[in-house]
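Revision sheet: structure tokens.
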Amino acid sequence: MPRVTFFLLLTLLSGIIVACRESNRPASSGISVADSARVFRLFDRAYEVQNANPDSAYELIQQAGALSRQYGFDQGLFNYYNQAMYNRAAYRGDFALVKRLGDTALSLVQDPARQRFRMLMNFSRAIEYQFQEQNDSAIVYYLRALDNQVFTRDTSRVSMIQNNLAILFHFQQRDDLAVTYQQKALQNAISRNDTARIIGSYVNLYGFEIARADTATAFMYLKNGLALAADPKTWRDETELFKNAGEYYVARDRVDSARYYFTRYYDLTRSLYPPVYLAQPLIGLAQTDWLAGNIAATAARLATVARLTNPDSLPLLDRQNFYRLQHQLLKKTGQWEGALLALERYNRAIAAFQNGEKNRKLVQYDERVKQLTHEKQLADQQYALDRKNSLIVGLAVVCVLLVGLAVVLMLYWRKRKMLESEKLAKLELETEWAQLKSRMEAQQEERGRISQELHDELGTALTSISLASELLKQRAEGNSAEVQIIARASSEMTTRMNEIVWSLNVNNDNLQSLVAYIRKFCADFLGEAGIQMIFSETIANPRQELKGIIRRNVYQSVKEAIHNVVKHAEASQVELAIATVENELHILIRDNGKGMTGGPVESWSNGLRNMRRNIETIKGQINWSVNNGTQVRIQTPMTP
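Predicted:
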């Protein structure tokens, strides 16, 4: 599938740069030309040094903001907020400071005299949330920025906002909205004769239509983009365009067309980016060589990719293509051991991609359930409010009775009609809630059925494979590298399948199950490594209900921490303590190893990021400290 994230990054960065640079245009105000020039010289100097020294750039931005306040120069002041928010978010990740700056700026633009800056400040707040991957909040502020465009004559950011909205909706699998906003961005770019953004819009529209399985429309957008790319001028957006074209023709076995566009992709990447970026076009060219039957050229290109970068650092889809080609090549040349290793890595890449999709869908499901629950609460509150209003109306009817019988009869009739409507509305709400509850229970039953089938069907097959491989290992002639790989893979798959079954089974949605599963894993894993485990638990309510995502994320984080101890800590003892404090689950993992110092920390960095992301996804906190070993503290609420 074509990818649009690269163009999103370019759009995001170029949007910030344009927002900063275009705000550096003096507008008519009470400030003198000399003073405004002094302010914008500071902004220009900050822009020039920002990539090399962001902290120095931030000091210059602060100086410009201080002068703008002194002069009463609103344009300079809001340009300060815009650039300061970007600098701290993009280069230092200080989102607490960025939020304070954004809150202050948004409160200032509520003044009608400053309403022309509302679009800029909502745009800056949207960028802040996009850096934090809080896409729902980013969408809200992008839409607010579009709504406030009426207060300014500056339309330079409209196309960027529409483009970013399209990509955010695509990430949420709302591709109909993605196409709508991307088409608006395309029309905006066409009206401004901005060829680079036109090409970028065609790249994104191609990806969105592929996601909607509309291949014909996708190919139309691809052809439109390629027609513009025939111009000798070079745009960075063409790299994704040529890549999409090459992948399109590879999928249809049109080798010559695919090689032509992958070659253009390679040449453009070589002229624009460092050599490490050549790995992706080289994989595309290797695919065309393989389809053409040129084994030597395929091997040469794959070897070049391996020299340029670690294949495991490639994006997942490129990683899959690399290891698939490597497996086919080694199998073709009779290098069976290498072919098996390549196949194993190819399967890992596929599993990583599928796990990411599975986790994303589970999170979306949990968020949908929360949304429906919230809507039900709002409906109940509205119903209670309506009932209260009805009582007020009833009191009014009693008072009106003193006026006359005719008025009483009229109000009584209206009252009856109102109560009937409210009762009907309540019945409709109750019916909808019952249907929703039934669907939720059906989904829970489906989770249980899936986990049971995984355990019964795949579990039996994997156990058979594992036993067969163990029998082969016991025979002298079967104790080969292939058997070792099969045994290891089957054991790992069995373990992973058991974890999936455990996470899906609704009967395990409680604290007792989580604690028991963690304790068993740690005892087995540390025992195999020869490390002593000291376990303690202080649990107030073992039957406390835990959502599936909380169990899964806490277990994966503890598992990663224990793996790090075995792999890197050189410890002889691990203390594992689990306790509940009110509505929070606290977990302490302490070892007596060498601590997180020197080179090993870099090798853990990806795992540490995954642990932090897992815990923060469920609104928890995770901290590491070093004191005669490494301490990992996890603290998370037990209810959403």
